[in-house]
């Protein structure tokens, strides 16, 4: 009997960029955006220190369309999902890796969504994407993600 395992991520943070909706060659919608989470603590001298972590978020199918319609840069959101790491070969021959949080559930934490409607309810993905779509998306976006700088000045929440 195999040992149990768990791949679950829960994040509350602010969007660092507008959601970007694309479609795989098979027509499956996929949206990507950044999320910043913050941590603060006091050091030994009593000074408050802060650090921000930046996360790559990806949503598929109906959840992708919902994220595109409701989310905007700066909004506070709860994301629940799993970690997924993909790899590709860059132009220079090196292997590149990108770890993303794949959204299963989302809750808007701002009082208003992108469209100005008050949404405080949980949004659940109705269907998981087929594994074939993942490799399709990875292969079609290799060129754009291989050359992207993961952080830009506009991505920083401060």
UniProtKB/TrEMBL annotation:
Acidic residues biased stretches: 128-158
Presence of keyword Transit peptide: no
An annotated Gene Ontology molecular function: single-stranded DNA binding
GO cellular component: nucleoid
Keywords per UniProt: DNA-binding
PROSITE patterns, alphabetized: SSB
One Pfam assignment: SSB
InterPro entries: NA-bd_OB-fold, Primosome_PriB/ssb, ssDNA-bd
Region annotation Disordered: where it falls in the sequence: 113-158
Alphabetized HAMAP family for the sequence: SSB
Name of the protein described by the UniProt record: Single-stranded DNA-binding protein
């Amino acid at each position: 009997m195999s040992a149990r395992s768990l791949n679950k991520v829960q994040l509350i943070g602010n969007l660092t960029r507008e959601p970007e909706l694309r479609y795989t060659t098979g027509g499956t919608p996929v949206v990507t955006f950044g999320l910043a989470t913050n941590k603060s603590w006091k050091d030994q001298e009593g000074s408050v220190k802060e650090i921000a972590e930046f996360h790559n978020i990806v949503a598929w199918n109906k959840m992708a369309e919902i994220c595109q319609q409701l989310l905007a840069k700066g909004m506070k959101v709860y994301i629940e999902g799993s970690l997924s790491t993909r790899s590709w070969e860059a132009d220079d021959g090196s292997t590149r890796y990108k770890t993303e949080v794949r959204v299963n559930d989302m809750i808007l934490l701002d009082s208003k969504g992108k469209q100005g409607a008050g949404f405080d309810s949980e949004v659940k993905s109705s269907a998981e994407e087929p594994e074939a779509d993942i490799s399709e998306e990875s292969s079609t976006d290799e060129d754009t993600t291989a050359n992207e700088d993961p952080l830009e000045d506009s991505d920083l929440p401060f």
